[in-house]
């Protein structure tokens, strides 16, 4: 057994928290649960890729993924195991929607360069924040009723109309399936002093408080909450005691997407070259946030001889007997991102 195979075997055995067994006399890992089988499939399928691309041993990678495998929604875990690209597998594992076709298309646009592919960032972790005008998505005083103490209530953060939750009658500008949301949560006249927890719907409630309140008060707190993507509900509310709840959304997080270059051409002023002169013609600077990708040399006459072109300028010789003019332009680009 070589070092890689040994490392992979150790990695599979090291998946703590997932039921497993080893066939007697064979040393072969056999998971006993659906979660264990899906996790083992992912490790066996992608450990070699991670080792080759990122230089991380199978054992270390599997160890780092233990918590994700244990906490991931089982449907997302099983769907992730069927993905044919590493990026789509990671995104699906964390409840985001990213198809293999999208990943392959982005790779094709980058000409397959590993540096270009990795520069986009992780579709599962490198999320992009977008601000929105504060918008009410939940008000239990207007609809759905007061939260009962000790119970869990699910609600949505993206829908065509939030009025069914007592909120705004629009979609508040929130796209389908954001990975996380920035929200302002208000407890209105709680029955007693206590706490409230907001967490991804369908997952175990964490031992943490999103907001602490006092009896009869109106207490607010701004939080960023991870959502459950691709499920009927996005977030769950648990309140220790009965209270009305108001939630306004101010922004959302989505996976990064490749976007076309945004480019502009900045024309330079004309420079006069006297008869027999050799001179440099400088290209203008780019606007803030843009990078010069090309210097365009523009002679005003075919009689001008371009001697060279360097970073930021063109060099001309005027062999004629009269003054001639030339200019240079800058092609400026940026990656807009999303």
Protein described:
- This protein is an alpha+beta fold.
- The protein has 3 domains: 3-119, no CATH class; 128-254, Sandwich (Jelly Rolls), CATH 2.60.120; 262-334.
- The protein contains 7 helices and 17 strands.
- The protein has helices at 3-13, 34-54, 58-71, 74-81, 86-93, 100-109, 114-119, and strands spanning 20-23, 28-31, 128-139, 152-155, 180-188, 194-200, 211-213, 218-226, 235-239, 244-254, 262-267, 271-273, 278-282, 291-299, 305-310, 313-317, 324-334.
- A 4-stranded antiparallel β-sheet has the order 3-10-5-8, with no helix packed on it. Strands 4-9-6-7 form a 4-stranded antiparallel β-sheet, with no helix packed on it. Strands 11, 12, 14 and 17 form a 4-stranded antiparallel β-sheet that branches.
- β1 (20-23) and β2 (28-31) form a beta hairpin.
- The radius of gyration is 29 Å and the shape is elongated.
Uncertain regions: pLDDT < 50 for 5+ in a row? Answer: 1-11, 13-28, 107-114
Whole-number count of domains: 3
CATH class of the largest domain: Mainly Beta
CATH architecture verdict of the largest domain: Sandwich
The number of distinct β-strands equals 17
Class based on secondary structure composition and strand pairing: alpha+beta
Strand order of the largest sheet: 3-10-5-8
- Largest sheet features: 4 strands, antiparallel
Helix content: 10-25%
Radius of gyration: 29 Å
The termini sit apart by: 46 Å
Mean pLDDT: 81
Strand content: 25-35%
Q: How many alpha or pi helices? A: 7
